[in-house]
Design a protein that fits this description.
2 domains, FAD/NAD(P)-binding domain, binds flavin-adenine dinucleotide, 26 strands, 439 residues
């Protein structure tokens, strides 16, 4: 693609919500913290120890289930943040359908008091598989087995000009928290008659239906609060990659006057001129751009040589989720690359929760010299299509011939006849899963 075939989206006017800049930049910087103190912390006694990295959808459940299965194993859960904010349902918050992020936020204190999990709030900076040590911003600690569930980080090399400041102008809101608040603020500050663009990456990425759900809910917000405004969804994929008939119906039936779907890939940003370049795209002037970059396993997995040759996802054994690159280290959630026959398990909170349970079962089995058990897991994924309706797709995954395979699928009826009840099921799922992660 030559430069002259590229066209421009121009972001006019000041981005709103810049008050949040400091927080997000500080978080980006903390990822670069060096190995920190060499001093050993939490010295290991005679008890066997599992260290879990990442207190999100996968890590909290793995930590809890190891303790529930075998109280003689000490579990240390390392998480950089004091609270965890759920990405699932953050699109509802962004679109003004939740007053704040309280219903999306969990704390860790009950994991400690109910299960005896030792919490360490620190940045993990390195893993030494030979010495079986983890380096953190607080010091080093030893493990017998390590479970790594760090989620995703962004691959921005393919977007010229993208730097640490870019998300403050073009928020990704693909990690929930300050980024979600910034995008919501920008939408609310936009004048009626403005245009919003969502730029989504090529598969694979965290939550395949997430950008389409976001498009529906933002279009719904605009229709109600800024009826002269418009939303453009720029999809780097050649076609809709998830729940296509359901999303297409919503766009056609509910948002045909304020929504446009276009294939196009973000290739360049200019923070100063607030310009986003999309291949093969006409000039558009837009007020708010939600730029979701391509993704890979969390930085710590890449830095610790847990990723494959492309430095993207972490190959693991299909039964135990043990890394194929380093012994006694298990990887789960968004970061994994499971051997699959057909469609892979989606990178979802539901998948991470399922994987965490059978990972914990097999970690405890391996530590006790017992046989491991093969995976049988579910992923059910709800997406809002309007203020009052959601749709879902569910899959059963089983181990067949050494690979993970879909053995059953269920999709919502295309007439949205279950839309209202599925919205309630989705809300109930969120409540249950966040309670499970935090008690
Ligand atoms: C907008 C949106 C909507 C979504 N909706 C749904 C949905 O409806 N249903 C669904 O099932 N899924 C949904 N998802 C996907 C879901 O959020 C992820 O798949 C899930 O969070 C993955 O779990 P994880 O444990 O791999 O990572 P995470 O949940 O992100 O947890 C990773 C944790 O590790 C910590 N961490 C990372 N590196 C370090 C380090 N070096 N040191 C210390 N701590 C570290 C992070 O702070 C984080 O808390 C959605 C995602 C998005 C973006």
């Amino acid at each position: 693609m030559t430069l002259d075939r590229r066209n421009f989206i121009k972001l006019l006017g000041g981005a709103s919500g810049l008050a949040l800049t400091g927080q997000a930049v500080a978080q980006a910087k903390s990822a670069a913290v060096s190995a920190g103190s060499a001093a050993e912390i939490m010295p290991k006694g005679s008890a066997r120890r599992v260290v879990v990295i990442g207190g999100g959808y996968g890590g909290t459940i793995a930590a809890k289930y190891v303790r529930m299965l075998d109280k003689s194993i000490e579990v240390v859960l390392i998480e950089r943040n004091k609270e965890f904010v759920s990405c699932p349902f953050s699109n509802f918050y962004i679109a003004g359908l939740m007053p704040d992020m309280q219903a999306l936020t969990i704390k860790y204190d009950k994991l400690a008091s109910n299960h005896g999990i030792k919490m360490l709030h620190a940045e993990v900076t390195a893993i030494d598989p030979a010495a079986k040590m983890v380096a953190t911003s607080q010091g080093r600690l030893a493990y017998d087995r390590l479970i790594v569930s760090p989620g995703i980080d962004f691959m921005t090399d393919g977007i010229e000009g993208y730097d640490a400041q870019t998300p403050e102008i073009f928020p990704h809101a693909w990690k929930a928290g300050p980024q979600s608040a910034l995008l919501r603020k920008q939408l609310q500050a936009m004048k009626d008659g403005g245009t919003v663009a969502i730029s989504m990456p090529l598969m694979p990425f965290r939550c395949p239906p997430g950008p389409y759900e976001r498009a529906c809910l933002i279009a719904s917000y605009l229709k109600k609060h800024k009826p002269k405004s418009k939303l453009i969804l720029l999809d780097a994929n050649p076609d809709v990659v998830s729940k296509k008939p359901l999303f297409v119906k919503a766009w056609k039936d509910y948002y045909k006057d304020n929504f446009q779907y276009i294939s196009g890939q973000a290739t360049k940003v200019d923070n100063k001129t607030r310009t986003l370049v999309i291949d093969n795209f006409d000039d558009y002037k837009v007020e708010v751009i939600n730029l979701i970059p391509p993704q890979r396993a969390g930085n710590i997995a890449v830095a610790s040589d847990l990723t494959d040759d492309k430095k993207r996802w972490c190959p693991v054994d299909a039964v135990s989720l043990e890394s194929t690159r380093h012994k006694d280290i298990h990887v789960l959630g968004d970061a994994t690359l499971l051997p699959s026959d057909g469609p892979a398990m989606p990178k979802s909170g539901y998948s991470a929760n399922s994987q965490a349970k059978f990972c914990a079962i097999n970690v405890v089995a391996l530590m006790n010299g017992k046989p491991t058990a093969a995976l049988s897991a579910i992923n059910a994924c709800y997406s809002g299509v309007s203020e009052t309706e959601s749709v879902s797709v569910s899959h059963v995954f089983k181990l067949v011939g050494g690979k993970i395979k879909v053995t059953a699928t269920a999709v919502s009826p295309v007439d949205f006849s279950l839309g209202k009840i599925e919205k309630a099921y989705g809300e109930s799922w969120l409540k249950n899963v966040l309670t499970e992660m935090s008690t």
